[in-house]
Amino acid sequence: MLKIWGRINSVNVKKVVWTAEECGVAYERIDAGMQYGVVSTPAYLAMNPNARVPTLDDDGFVLWESNTMVRYLARRYGQGTLDPQDLRQYADADRWMDWCTSTLAGAFRNVFWGMVRTPIEQRDAKAIETSRVETAKLLAIPEAVLAHQPYLAGAQFTMGDIPLGCFVHLWLSMPIERPAHPALSAWHARLAARPAFQKAVNTPLS
Ligand SMILES: N[C@@H](CCC(=O)N[C@@H](CS)C(=O)NCC(=O)O)C(=O)O
Questions:
Q1: Ligand 1 lined by 52 (C-beta under 6 Å)
Q2: What's the Cα-to-Cα distance from 144 to each of 75, 131, 137, 148, rounded to whole Å?
């Protein structure tokens, strides 16, 4: 059976669990990381030398890097739906996955870590504010796309919606000021209506 190591309050673990749920494939999730430890044990390091979560094991095939797992599961279990068959639509979906990791995640990091993982008295208000402003500015990019199509890669929900969907859910859960992004909010509501999203992504923050 498919195994996914990682605590469900990790945004990168959520991506993979959400994908498995969308594919309807049976899996076992094993808590690891942060308060659960596990990631520094020799057995875990042999699978994932980064000592990070998630790690995936599909019948002995072991992977790390969450976006790669999303692509792998989409190709193996979600062809024609999560994994677009048309090359250009595939690249369009893939582009949003890379943008989420390379651009959005770093900008958002200080809002999330500051507001959720840092005790109030130790928070760096300036870093949180810089991160908030930068994230709000970046989210105008998917907002413009979603203003004229329901999903990031067009008319259908694809793997391209998964990483950014996880991050936007966190962004909308933060007790901070946000500019109105009506198309992004409507897209988030469409994602949140999916049972797989409710199971994997709408989970406690810490
Ligand atoms: N690029 C990696 C990043 C993995 C990563 O940084 N995971 C974080 C959680 S989101 C982690 O393992 N933190 C340490 C821990 O939980 O012990 C991926 O996408 O899988």
A1: yes
A2: 28, 21, 12, 8
